[in-house]
From TrEMBL, chain A:
GO terms for biological process: L-amino acid transport. The lineage of its organism: Bacteria, Pseudomonadati, Pseudomonadota, Alphaproteobacteria, Rhodospirillales. Residues 23-260 form the ABC transporter domain. GO terms for molecular function: ATP binding; ATP hydrolysis activity; branched-chain amino acid transmembrane transporter activity. SMART domains: AAA (SM00382). Coiled coil: none annotated. This is ABC transporter ATP-binding protein. The keyword Nucleotide-binding applies. The keyword ATP-binding applies. Keywords: Amino-acid transport, ATP-binding, Nucleotide-binding, Transport. Signal peptide: none annotated. InterPro entries: AAA+_ATPase, ABC_transporter-like_ATP-bd, ABC_transporter-like_CS, BCAA_Transport_ATP-bd_LivF, P-loop_NTPase. Belongs to the ABC transporter superfamily.
């Protein structure tokens, strides 16, 4: 485990052969407030030890999928009305979110959601709430090894920068020693450089600790670089899936999610940058 | 003014009308305030107070430093108890957003339970006290599960009405079970009072101050270092986040009621040992409001400080009232006057939530 992380040195994990799925979501339907149908027959598999990306436009139902898996749907008056979710061979839909955490699924929610009136250390200790073993102290050190910056911040977590808060949110997830981490938009609101750093850490965590990660992202390019497999969602369904390479080279994906595919687009980009340069002069 | 003169004559003679069986709500408030007076001023045996008061009435405007000092110490002791009850009120409010109007009844039930154990079974005080704590903890959990859990998600006004209902119900239940007259506790200490800095302070009140400080320190430790304390803070901050961390919000709610009932009952037993147990104890539940609103509804530290301020304030107000003003009711009213002023200046109280905004 190395303390400093070289952003470019961490390679993407190799695309593994089909392993048995740790998490499998089979044809689920999710309804909010008994009337609003959000997911209509979604299925996906997450093989053990891999990073799987779940991509799609706003409102496609990516976050809802994660909440359905982690059980947090209940807190928002939503329910899985059809299909089932199984984790490590056991059916988990309908179970309370706190019990799902105990089974080894931890969700890093969108917008980080750290507890701003507590210190970093208290946030980390809360991450380990479900654990009964005595290695919590060592794991706090481990998190500090990944994120040396957090160790220096002794004040309230609410005063951390956005990137630091994201690191704290990931560190808090690690403290629970989960088998599967559900990450909802880790790149949200971060500068491109920080996004790179966060993704490098996600890959490193996956490689070092063998944690399986299901990653929901708007930043499709970064997500497909980190992931080995990807699903693309549209209005509550999976419309396309494949290995990360296949998806990254797919013409439709390029056009809709990666941007800057064809010739015209490139020229438009040049035009824009030209204009900008002129304005600065 | 007629009422005030009757009240002051009652105070001077040192006797209070015993609780009568037929009681209207107004009647209850009047009687509890009259008794609330006794609850607080009995803290330190103020000798010759009635003579001092007579002289005060006679126009002697010289400050009576000795009396003031005694009342200040008294205020601190009673204020610490207010602080303890206020803390347990804030605990419930923070964890489950329920304004608990039945907080005073927790004191009452705890005191009666302890009194009943001590007088019926003649067990030592320590054992009676510990059994009471265990009983109140169970009571809090059951109350939360049976009465308040079904109310989760209902409008806030419904939940408040339920706690007011609980207050009336337990008040009546205790009167029905134990009668309306104040009953004295069996003596706990060999020596009734000890001398501290030349003041005769009742041993029970020293115990009270010690217990209050112990509970406050315990709360501080619990919320800073214990896993469950952190979980309760997390739940107070954001229930969804708490659940995503694996915290069972139901457990946290039940635990907050259990701790609150238990801690309040400690205050009930302490006050009961001095003044005897009667429905006047639930008056603490009303005094808690100026304390918690002063401190800010969601701050444990604010509750402690608010409690101390209210305790001091009413005693100092009582001093000026008895020495100079002779209005006869400043003792109860002063905290509420100050409460109004503070809310005009700082609407969130002294320590109310300041949400952190990153810029």
């Amino acid at each position: 485990m190395t303390a400093a992380i070289d952003v470019n040195a961490v390679p993407a994990p190799p695309v593994a052969a089909r392993k048995p799925a740790l998490l499998s979501v089979n044809n689920i339907e999710v309804v909010y407030n008994d009337v609003i149908l959000v997911l209509r027959g979604l299925s996906l598999q997450v093989p053990e030890g891999e990073i799987v990306a779940l991509l799609g436009a706003n409102g496609a139902g990516k976050s809802t999928t994660l909440k359905a898996i982690s059980g947090l749907l209940k807190t928002e008056d939503g329910a899985v009305t059809r299909g089932d979710i199984s984790f490590a061979g056991e059916k988990i839909n309908g179970i309370d979110p706190d019990k799902i955490v105990r089974r080894g699924i931890f969700q890093v929610m969108e917008g980080r959601r750290i507890i701003s009136d507590m210190t970093c250390l208290e946030n980390l200790r809360l991450g380990a709430f479900t654990r009964r073993d005595n290695n919590v102290r060592q794991d706090i050190e481990m998190v500090y090894d990944y994120f040396p910056r957090l160790k220096e911040r002794t004040g309230l977590a609410g005063y951390l920068s956005g990137g630091e808060q994201q690191m704290l949110a990931i560190g808090r997830a690690l403290m629970a020693r989960p088998k599967l981490i559900l990450m909802d938009e880790p790149s949200m609101g971060l500068s491109p450089l920080l996004v790179k750093e966060v993704f490098a850490i996600i890959r490193q965590i996956n490689r070092d600790l063998g944690v399986t990660i299901l990653l929901v992202e708007q930043n499709a390019r970064m997500a497909l670089q980190a992931a080995s497999y990807g699903y693309i969602m549209e209005s509550g369904k999976v419309v396309l899936d494949g290995t990360a390479e296949e998806l990254a080279n797919n013409e439709d994906v390029k056009e809709f999610y990666l941007g800057g595919g064809g010739e015209e687009r490139r020229s438009f980009k040049n035009l824009k940058s030209y204009k900008r340069r002129k304005r600065w002069l | 003014m007629v009422f005030a003169s009757i009240r002051s004559s009652v105070r001077r003679s040192g006797q209070f009308p015993a609780g009568d069986p037929d009681h209207t709500p107004y009647d209850r408030i009047l009687r509890t305030t009259a008794r609330g007076d006794s609850v607080a001023t009995a803290g330190i045996r103020i000798q010759k107070q009635s003579q001092e008061q007579e002289r005060g009435l006679g126009g002697n405007l010289a400050m009576n430093w000795n009396l003031l000092f005694q009342l200040v110490v008294n205020g601190i002791i009673v204020g610490a108890l207010y602080g303890v009850v206020a803390m347990s009120f804030v605990l419930i409010y923070k964890a489950s957003q329920v304004v608990n109007f039945a907080q005073g009844e927790f004191l009452l039930i705890g005191a009666w339970a302890c009194w009943w154990l001590l007088t019926t079974y003649q067990i030592p005080f320590v054992w009676g006290f510990l059994i009471t704590l265990a009983f109140m903890m169970t009571f809090g959990v059951i109350l939360q599960i049976v009465v308040l859990r079904p109310m989760i998600g209902e409008p806030i006004i419904s939940v408040i009405m339920v706690t007011i209902g609980l207050s009336i119900f337990f008040q009546a239940l205790m009167k029905w079970m134990f009668g309306v007259f104040a009953k004295p506790f069996p003596p706990i200490f060999e020596t009734q009072s000890v001398s501290v800095f030349g003041l005769q302070v009742q041993s029970v009140y020293l115990m009270s101050l010690g217990i209050s400080l112990f509970i406050m320190a315990g709360f501080g430790w619990f919320f800073k270092y214990s896993k469950m304390g952190l979980a309760m803070r997390a739940t107070a901050f954001d229930q969804q986040v708490a659940q995503s961390l694996g915290i069972s919000v139901r457990t946290v709610f039940a635990l907050s009621w259990a701790i609150s009932a238990m801690v309040s009952s400690v205050a009930g037993v302490v006050v009961g040992t001095v003044n005897g147990v009667s429905s006047a104890l639930s008056f603490f539940g009303i005094k808690v409001f100026p304390a918690v609103i002063l401190g800010g509804l969601d701050s444990i530290l604010g509750a402690v400080i608010g409690g101390l301020i209210v305790g001091l304030l009413e005693n100092v107000a009582h001093f000026f009232d008895s020495q100079f003003l002779n209005w006869g009711n400043m003792y109860e009213i002063a905290p509420f006057y100050v409460l109004i002023v503070i809310l005009m200046i700082k609407p969130y109280g002294l320590f109310g939530t300041k949400t952190i905004e990153r810029v």
